[in-house]
Amino acid sequence: MPLTSSLAPSNTATGANPPNSAAPLAGSLQLASSKPLPPESELPRYLVSEKLDGVRARWTGQTLVTRSGNLIAPPAWFIAALPADVLLDGELWAGRGRFEWLSGLVRSRGRDDDWYQVQLMVFDTPQSGLGFAERHKWLQARLSDKTEPLKLVEQRRFQHLSELNDYYQAVIRGGGEGLMLHREDALYIDGRNPLLIKLKPLNDTEGQVIGYRAGKGQFEGMMGALHLRLLDGREFFLGSGFSFDERRHPPAIGAWVTFQYHGLTDKGLPKGARFLRVRPME
Predict the structure, then answer these.
(1) In angstroms, how far apart are the furthest CA atoms of the chain?
(2) Domain span including residue 111
(3) CB 234 within 8 A of CB 268
(4) Environment class of residue 8 by beta-carbon count within 10 Å: exposed (0-12), middle (13-18) or buried (19+)?
(5) Is residue 133 domain-resident?
(6) What is the pTM (predicted TM-score) of this model?
(7) Whether residue 151 lies in the annotated active site
(8) pLDDT tens digits for range 205-231
(9) Which residue in the list 51, 137, 267, 271 is annotated as catalytic?
(10) pLDDT tens-digit readout, 30-68
């Protein structure tokens, strides 16, 4: 997948203070945006790392919690290896292509030996007042004496989009998910950060509507997901990418729809699928 360039939003970092390790972590979770790449002239301002296909985890200094705040319960030896006075944002990771195995481990109990295959890959610390490059430098110094299972995610800089593309293609060929581009002066914010860009390949395919799943919550009384039969005969539910109007008036049974996805699950079903459009009748 070739890389393209367009203008990214701008931001100005505030004055830098030492990270406040006593600040609460609850409610502070930064998410990446699917934004266009920065122009080549801006590229050197971004730190680039591999996008890891793991389980998002936050270390509060005492407990490890998921993206939604649920407690993660690894063995005592794993917790003991983490610093008691540093707030960390990262990802539990067991290697490329092992998300489903890892997700099952995180939800299970009594599999302590399997945790020796897991690392907490740290990519940030939720501190106010520091740009990302400064936060990363602070983490390098603070975690320099730490070993397994804690590891700081490597950050790289590129001068040219062609160099970035070479690295991106190498990651994808090796089974990686993609890249994360984080502008050096970006502050840590709660929610989507326009200066934190995720770059990963998208595929598209088609499926035939064979049923519906009812919506819940804000989609009560509407379509929650389409039940699709794929070209190879397998079935799955497509629930993302629809407008409210499309949920009120979903594609008819028998219609063919096109959707995007990135990669496949262990069962060969589309991962991260989003509705694009109904295929016109031919």
Answers:
(1) 64
(2) 30-199
(3) yes
(4) buried
(5) yes
(6) 0.70
(7) no
(8) 899 999 999 999 999 999 999 999 998
(9) 51
(10) 777 666 788 999 999 999 999 998 999 999 999 999 887
